[in-house]
Amino acid sequence: MININEKSFFLMKILKYIFLLLLLCGIAGFVFIATQPGEYTITKSKEISASKDVVFNYVKDFNNWNLWNSNIDSTSSKELFSEDSKIYTISNGNESIIYETLKLYDSDSIAQKLTQDNLTHNLVWKFTSTKEGTLLTCEMKGTMTLKQKVFSVLQGGAQNYLGDDIQKSLKNIDKYLTSQLNKFNIKIFGLVTKEGTLFIKQIDSSSIKNFSSISRIKIPELIKFAKENSINYTEAPFVLFDHWNTTNNNTKFSICLPVKEEIITSEGSDVLGGELFEYRAVKVTLTGDHSHIRKAWEEGFKYIERNKLSIDLNGSYVEAYKVSSPNEKEPSKWITDIYIPIKVAAAPKIKPVFTNSVNEPITETAPTLTE
Fold it and tell me: What whole-number distance in Å separates Cα of residue 205 and Cα of residue 242?
């Protein structure tokens, strides 16, 4: 018969062997994970129902990333932006992820660098036009930390572990753009008086295709200039078009910022002062993403034609960005006012009627002109 002491000794030996076995398995597992290749390449794609320019401008703007990036927790993450908007930092407690835009390739691709845990990862976004919209592809290359290797092995490889986050972000972009871009409204206010204003401006020109991209860059630059020079601007920025030539695919325009007082800049500065005088115009308001702006202009011209109004070809064509990014992140809430200049018939000249010997004129009231 085995006594109690012998049973305890036997049980302890079994537990000892089990512990040693688990320890050996743990060491083997650690060695296996540590010796796995750390380099990885992940490629994920998603077709989005939006034009290439729209998707490109949306992805390149770090101000939008908190709306779709799966690495951001809206309740706890803190965001930091560099002055030139090329570096974007996300902080979650003691951990930080730094994104840096290295180069933009004319609506076709974006090269970025991601830094986390002192390791650098290369990130490339590619934009390809399709019949349904845009094929958005994200390619990520880099070296995993030991912690990432562990999770990678447990989840069946880097494609599953890191790739799932990328795929989730792509789905978020698609969901957000589709819902935001399809929600818009165009309202025609008819003939109004456009108030005059003093302004500062930067004159520029571009192809019609690139106007949206250039204006997105130039407007923040002009606002930055005003702030650095303590210039008080009174309203939202606007664009004053000199011409819009669809035949030659080019446009000349001024990026403008309304100011309280006349501004005289130094000689050689690309920022100039100007004044917009009061005039009559047909006003059209677009509530929604700027991708619908051409349709809003077209509706304005149709209104003019229906009501037999005459466009003032020498007048001021204005596109005013009353509500827009970065102050409002949701494109469906952006508000853009369009003003198309209209010729107003002059009141008929009334010949004075003289009734006394000293020829003092008695003026007659001019007839009221209806619009």
Answer: 9
* Within-domain flag for 358: no
- Alpha carbons 254 and 258: distance in angstroms, whole number: 12
The pLDDT score that the predictor gives to residue 179 is 84
Run of H or E residues at 62? none
Peptide bond just before 326 cis, omega within 30 deg:
yes
Place of tokens 């650690």: 30
Looking up residue 101, the CATH number of its domain turns out to be 3.30.530.20
218 close to 202: Cβ distance less than 8 angstroms: yes
By C-alpha distance, which of 272, 363, 362, 257 is closest to 318? 257
Mean pLDDT by groups of 10 residues along the chain of 371 residues: 58 68 62 60 90 86 83 72 82 85 90 88 93 92 67 54 83 88 91 93 85 80 87 88 85 91 80 91 93 92 94 92 82 93 70 43 35 37
DSSP secondary structure letter of residue 235: S
Number of domain units in the chain = 2
Residue 364 lies in a domain: no
Is residue 261 assigned to a domain?
A: yes
Do 56 and 130 fall within a single domain? yes
DSSP H helices in the chain: 4-34, 52-60, 146-154, 158-181, 211-228, 293-306
Query: Sign of the CA dihedral 151, 156, 157, 162?
Result: negative
d(CA 253, CA 267): 21
> Of 152, 161, 155, whose CA–CA distance to 38 is shortest?
152
267 lies in a domain?
yes
What does DSSP assign to residue 342? B
- Structural domain including 113 reads 37-181
Domain boundary among 147, 181, 215: 181
Radius of gyration of the chain (CA): 32
* Strand, helix or coil for residue 52: helix
Q: CA-CA distances (angstroms) from residue 116 to 96, 100, 146, 156, 368?
A: 6, 12, 13, 22, 72
